[in-house]
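Renewal narrative, Specific Aim 1. Our central claim is that a sequence can be written position by position from structural information alone. The example that follows is taken directly from our test logs and has not been curated for this report. It begins with the structure tokens describing the chain, in the order in which they were read.
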């Protein structure tokens, strides 16, 4: 007698199976690039310590960087559709590498300001191209998992890059610029060698951003994304200020609590990405936003490191839920030949939020911690309600 057994798919296979090889080249390049992302988190420290600039001058320089970032996403969206996904991504990475080195060796204020503007312009050019590539390469049913895995790679790489970057900054800032530049070159080469060009034929790639702006559903979704970004980016703007200045935590205590965010993402994201991918995108996105809102509203009651960690755990759960669906929804709304532009408008919302988050959060925090965090939680809930309202139209699309 002979018996046959049916082998159940392993957990690892269930998480990585079914995705095409070019996607994994894109994923690997993203991971390497994020492992080498060391300059931007330490820019303020570099400019004050290594270049002897005042805090006011640093604020001006970062504002110039933000202006470049605003233009970046719209420009990248057009290039992705007109020139090609692979060319735009690889070219953007090579331009970022060159600009990193130029900034690292700049000593005068005009040179630093110019380098920072160009860096803001080129550093995220890869994002619309990357989002469009995933939409082109991966089937609709697998896109939430694919975008979730990219989110996981970004967070894993960033966590390691931050840790090693802090040590290298003590050795010499120039190392940060070289490692960041090399990681950009590796990303560019990986994509150029292993990822095919997926741009539709040139005759189909006409139309400017006016086409995107006339899509009322995409514009409405972009407003939801703007709300999501305004909420999340408080983690990098007002949350450190509130915890150290109001709650009186030390930087070490705040950093320890924030480490939980990265740990949870690295551990939990791969475990739930497949399950989340089978849920309805708009309802799940709204649920994630609501959980984020609850976590940030709870921050108003934080009095010590433990309770800060509790709130971080709550809004991180929301962040994990949301992660795989933004790109999925953009890909569903965008015509194939306009995926770059649609992704560019999505990225523009994040760039705009990066400028607005501190401008709005600062005055709110001055009125009181409860005012800030209840407002942030309210923005998340309004965005969640907006997402639910858009759900039927998104499902029809």
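The sequence written for that structure reads:
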């Amino acid at each position: 007698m002979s018996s046959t057994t049916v082998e159940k798919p392993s957990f690892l296979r269930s998480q990585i199976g079914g995705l095409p090889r070019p996607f994994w080249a894109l994923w690997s390049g993203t991971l390497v690039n994020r492992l080498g992302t060391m300059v931007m988190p330490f820019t303020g420290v570099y400019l004050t310590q290594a270049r002897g600039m005042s805090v006011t001058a640093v604020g001006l320089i970062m504002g110039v960087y933000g202006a470049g970032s605003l233009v970046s996403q719209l420009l990248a969206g057009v290039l992705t559709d007109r020139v090609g996904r692979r060319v735009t991504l690889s070219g953007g990475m090579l331009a970022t590498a060159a600009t990193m080195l130029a900034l690292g060796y700049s000593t005068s204020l005009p040179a630093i300001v110019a380098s920072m503007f160009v860096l803001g312009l080129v550093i995220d050019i890869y994002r619309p191209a990357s989002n469009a590539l995933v939409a082109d390469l991966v089937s609709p049913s697998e896109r939430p998992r694919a975008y979730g895995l990219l989110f996981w790679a970004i967070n894993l790489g960033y966590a390691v890059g931050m840790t090693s970057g802090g040590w290298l900054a003590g050795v010499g800032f120039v190392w940060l610029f070289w490692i960041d530049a090399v990681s950009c070159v590796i990303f560019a080469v990986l994509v150029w060698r292993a990822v095919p060009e997926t741009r539709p034929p040139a005759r189909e790639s006409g139309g400017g951003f006016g086409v995107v702006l006339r899509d009322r559903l995409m514009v409405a979704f972009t407003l939801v994304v703007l709300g999501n970004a305004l909420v999340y980016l408080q983690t990098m703007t007002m949350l450190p200020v509130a915890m150290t200045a109001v709650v009186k935590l030390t930087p070490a205590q705040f950093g320890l609590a924030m480490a939980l965010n990265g740990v949870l993402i690295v551990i939990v994201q791969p475990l739930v990405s497949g399950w989340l991918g089978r849920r309805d995108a708009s309802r799940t996105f709204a649920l994630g936003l609501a959980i984020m809102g609850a976590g940030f509203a709870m921050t108003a009651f934080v009095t010590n490191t433990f309770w800060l960690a509790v709130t971080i755990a709550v809004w991180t759960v929301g962040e994990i839920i949301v992660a795989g669906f933004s790109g999925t929804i953009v890909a569903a709304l965008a015509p194939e030949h306009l995926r770059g532009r649609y992704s560019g408008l999505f990225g523009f919302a994040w760039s705009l939020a990066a400028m607005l988050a501190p401008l709005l959060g600062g005055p709110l925090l001055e009125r009181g911690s409860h005012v800030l965090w209840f407002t942030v939680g309210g923005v998340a809930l309004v965005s969640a309600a907006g997402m639910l309202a858009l759900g039927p139209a998104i499902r029809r699309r």
